[in-house]
Amino acid sequence: MLKCAAALRALALPLAALMAVASSGPAQAKPDPQAPREFVALSEVDPTILQEIRYITPHNFTGDPVDGYRRAMCILTRPAAKALHQAQTRLLKRGYTLKVYDCYRPQRAVDQFVTWAKDLDDQRMKGEFYPHVDKTRLFEDGYIAEKSGHSRGSTMDLTIVKLPAKPTRPYEPGEELTPCYAPRQERFPDNSVDMGTGYDCFDTLAHTMDPRITGVRRANRMLLKNTMEKLGFVNLAEEWWHYTYQPEPFPDTYFDFPVARRSLTGH
Questions:
Q1: How many helices (H) and strands (E) does the chain have?
Q2: How far apart are CA 97 and CA 220, in angstroms?
Q3: What angle do CA 165, 182, 94 make, to 5 degrees?
Q4: Could you read off the pLDDT of 87-107 as tens digits, one per residue?
Q5: Class of residue 23 by CB neighbours under 10 A (exposed 0-12, middle 13-18, buried 19+)
Q6: Is the distance from CB of 157 to CB of 166 less than 8 angstroms?
Q7: Are strands 39-41 and 75-77 parallel, antiparallel or unpaired?
Q8: Cβ contacts of 106 within 8 Å, gap of 6 or more
Q9: Which residue, 236, 131, 138, 243, is CA-closest to 181?
Q10: What is the set of active-site residues?
Q11: Residue 13 pLDDT more than 80?
């Protein structure tokens, strides 16, 4: 009897541990972070600005939809969105509208860009987005970085569209690619005015003030640049489409909440 009692006591501890684990249930997924109250959906500030969020589609330099983009929407800090509304008001009077390609970008999306850049075997989209750039140089040449100002919430990629805006056909994965710096009639169609290159073109021709961009194309870039800079936006010299509102509400914080309506719930 003593031996049986001892055996039962020996089984009691592991059995209790198993019961505790069972009662706790399956592990719960960690909830996504929420956006601070200073963030808004651009459509709520200005519904007239066109939105063509590229990274939720495979038509980008990675060739895949990007992690963290769950809805085709532009999210920005409120001051940036309000200033963009002012820019839109000025352009509408001249028969144009703004169109955003990207706004707030989660850190997880930037992480995916870094992983992609290190995978030298994946060059599916080279023919359009970086024909002249060796993928081994994407970090050194500054096209890819481990942090992006977009993740701070006051940076956007955008262009100008002549009104009335014509629709842009969807990209078909696997279709023949044309260099982003090709003449407008040859590269992937975009309803924007001719800026000299397509969006996200990894090429020096995309530098805002590149002297090879002349005539109407230069005038289009300057229309965007002058309109934005008068309202507190600063252009990234290497990308004609890239602007940051100053002063930034979060100059040192890189957020990772998803691009989704629910990220703004509770505001």
A1: 6, 7
A2: 12
A3: 30
A4: 999 999 999 999 999 999 999
A5: exposed
A6: no
A7: antiparallel
A8: 67, 68, 69, 151, 255, 256, 257, 258, 259
A9: 131
A10: 239
A11: no
The residue to which tokens 């309803």 are assigned = 191
- Cis peptide leading into residue 247 (ω within 30°): yes
The encoded tokens of residue 132 equal 């002249």
Amino acid occupying residue 180: C
Tokens (6 digits) for 141: 């040449």
Give dist(CA 76, CA 54) in Å, integer: 16
* Strand partners for 77: 39
pLDDT value for 29: 73
Grade residue 2 by pLDDT with cuts at 50, 70 and 90: very low
Nearest 5°: the CA angle 110, 112, 116 is 120
What SS3 state is found at 57? coil
Q: Which of 43, 39, 71, 42 is nearest to 55 (CA)?
A: 71
Tell me the two tokens of residue 41: 């959906």
What does the mean pLDDT of the chain come to?
92
Find out whether 235 and 228 touch, Cβ atoms under 8 Å.
yes
Q: Would you call 223 helix, strand, or coil by DSSP?
A: helix
Residue 68 class from Cβ within 10 Å (0-12 exposed, 13-18 middle, 19+ buried)? buried
Are 179 and 185 in contact by the 8 Å Cβ rule? The answer is no
Q: Which residues contact 13 (CB under 8 A, 6 or more apart)?
A: none
Q: What single-letter amino acid sits at 241? A: W
**DSSP state string for 63-118:** SSPPTTB-SS--EEEHHHHHHHHHHHHHHHTTTEEEEEEE-S--HHHHHHHHHHHH
What share of the chain in percent tops pLDDT 70? Answer: 89
Q: Is the four-CA dihedral 145, 39, 36, 259 of positive or negative sign?
A: negative
